[in-house]
């Protein structure tokens, strides 16, 4: 007998109720999709590298300084708090990704737990998050690479977007298309390159730590929280304090969710996804705490927080100019790993939504030779290039956290709903103390969302109003479940 959660329509329900209760079956998802399957080529080292590649990037190289300016030495607590919220979300992701080993990440989990309208909202949030992060890192990479482009005679008008008086940020456009092209060649090939670049990035940070330890001065940690703990406006109206820094530093942590988008391409998802998600979070939290601590010990926060490249600044202040240049070069070489990880996730979200009929079905076509959604990958690269080529880093980055927080909240809710509704289903990885952990992810993300600027929250609302229009105009009537109802 069709019920309100079956995704089928009874005579008494009518179209409206059926629309609100459409949801996917876990068994149907796991069974696969004929003609639209991704090739299984990844193992846990690739997944850990994918997660670390996504997490360790612009955040650790730049946000350490900005966060220290907001919280002082208490920025270490900011990293810990942001990491704790993300850890709760990561544990929820680990349970759901191993129980539902299919591409789509939070979008797919929401489709199973809460139905199609919520899944669309979450999918749109992920598109917002991944696209903006790709574009933001492309702009950040461009800022480090402009010297190289000047050496080959690139006109100044092609090194900055209109907001900086130029025509287009050509380096950002080039790196966006370059990463998209690499991904289109094949998942395993791009994952292998990613592992090498992640190693470069980690080695550079290790060198930084080793050189800073001899200059460590414990007195730099006093006063520990000069701006206080809560996020409160200063004389200029800017929120400062440990929690204000935590809401910003949160940007530096997310990226592990990109691992869950690789579920369908993982050889042994039940083992490898857990290692990939939890392992990448553990590695990155440790890296962040150590780097933040030695940064503060080697230089006072009020000094290095004013630099756009705080790690390079600290090394130069310690009379290591050549090593500082190498660390900067490592950032230029390795930052594309962040673009690669998020562009990978973005193309897979697009792919799954198209496969489900919420976006044009033709976008879900997988290349027979590479086993990748080439069209979707190149479209993602084009969107990143368009945004990064003409908009400023500030404009791009403002919405990224909002989309991520919405997705994390949905994942926490999905764990709770499925635990209650389907308690007997086998769970390869079970979230420990799931009521506490899932609630911690939800409440923590809600608090961080409330700490975002009001303008960012409004832009998030406007973006989802646009998404609702797209859904009503196309997805509502063309989704696979909608077509099934009409047959």
Automatic annotation (TrEMBL):
Topology in the lipid bilayer: Multi-pass membrane protein
Cellular compartment(s): Membrane
Tagged with keyword Transmembrane: yes
Lineage: Bacteria, Pseudomonadati, Pseudomonadota, Alphaproteobacteria, Caulobacterales
Domain of life according to the entry: Bacteria
Transmembrane segments: 47-70, 76-96, 117-143, 163-184, 196-216, 236-256, 277-298, 323-345, 374-393, 399-420, 432-452, 458-476
Primary localisation category: membrane
Any single Gene Ontology cellular-component annotation: membrane
Keyword Transmembrane included in the entry's annotation: yes
Annotated GO MF terms: amino acid transmembrane transporter activity
Pfam families per UniProt: AA_permease_2
Protein name, per record: Amino acid permease
Keyword annotations of the record: Membrane, Transmembrane, Transmembrane helix, Transport
């Amino acid at each position: 007998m069709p019920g309100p959660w079956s995704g089928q329509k009874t005579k008494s329900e009518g179209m409206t109720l059926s629309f609100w209760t459409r949801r996917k079956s876990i068994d149907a998802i796991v069974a696969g999709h004929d003609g639209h399957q991704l090739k299984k080529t990844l193992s846990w080292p690739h997944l850990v590298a994918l997660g670390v590649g996504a997490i360790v990037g612009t955040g650790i190289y730049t946000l350490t300084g900005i966060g220290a300016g907001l919280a002082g030495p208490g920025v270490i607590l900011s990293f810990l708090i942001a990491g704790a919220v993300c850890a709760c979300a990561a544990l929820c992701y680990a349970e759901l990704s191993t129980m539902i080993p299919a591409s789509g990440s939070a979008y797919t989990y929401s489709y199973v737990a809460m139905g199609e309208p919520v899944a669309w909202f979450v999918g749109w949030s992920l598109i917002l998050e991944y696209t903006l992060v790709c574009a933001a890192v492309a702009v950040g990479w461009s800022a480090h690479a402009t010297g190289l482009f000047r050496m080959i005679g690139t006109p100044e008008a092609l090194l900055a977007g209109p907001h900086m008086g130029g025509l287009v940020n050509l380096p950002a456009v080039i790196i966006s298309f370059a990463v998209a092209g690499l991904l289109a060649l094949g998942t395993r090939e791009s994952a292998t390159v990613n592992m090498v670049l992640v190693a470069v990035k980690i080695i550079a940070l290790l060198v930084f730590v080793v050189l800073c330890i001899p200059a460590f001065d414990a007195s730099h940690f006093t006063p520990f929280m000069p701006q206080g703990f809560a996020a409160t406006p200063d004389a200029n109206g800017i929120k400062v304090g440990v929690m204000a820094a935590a809401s910003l530093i949160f940007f530096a942590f997310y990226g592990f969710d990109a691992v869950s988008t690789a579920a369908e391409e993982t050889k042994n998802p039940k083992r490898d996804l857990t290692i990939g998600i939890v392992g990448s979070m553990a590695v990155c939290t440790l890296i962040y705490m150590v780097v933040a601590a030695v940064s503060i010990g080697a230089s006072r926060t009020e000094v290095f927080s004013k630099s756009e490249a705080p790690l390079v600044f600290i090394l130069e202040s310690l009379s290591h100019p050549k090593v500082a240049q190498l660390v900067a070069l490592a950032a230029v070489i390795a930052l594309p790993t962040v673009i690669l990880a998020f562009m990978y996730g973005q193309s897979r979200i697009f792919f799954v939504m198209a496969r489900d009929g919420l976006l044009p079905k033709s976008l879900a076509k997988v290349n027979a030779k590479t086993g990748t959604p080439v069209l979707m990958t190149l479209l993602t690269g084009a969107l990143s290039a368009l945004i990064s080529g003409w908009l400023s880093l500030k404009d791009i980055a403002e919405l990224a956290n909002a989309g991520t927080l919405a997705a994390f909240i949905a994942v926490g809710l999905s764990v709770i709903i499925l635990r209650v509704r389907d308690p007997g289903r086998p769970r390869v990885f079970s979230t420990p103390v799931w009521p506490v952990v899932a609630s911690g992810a939800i409440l923590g993300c809600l608090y961080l969302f409330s700490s975002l600027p009001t303008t960012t929250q409004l832009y998030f609302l406007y973006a989802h109003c646009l998404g609702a229009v797209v859904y009503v105009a196309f997805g509502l009537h063309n989704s696979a479940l909608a077509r099934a109802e009409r047959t």
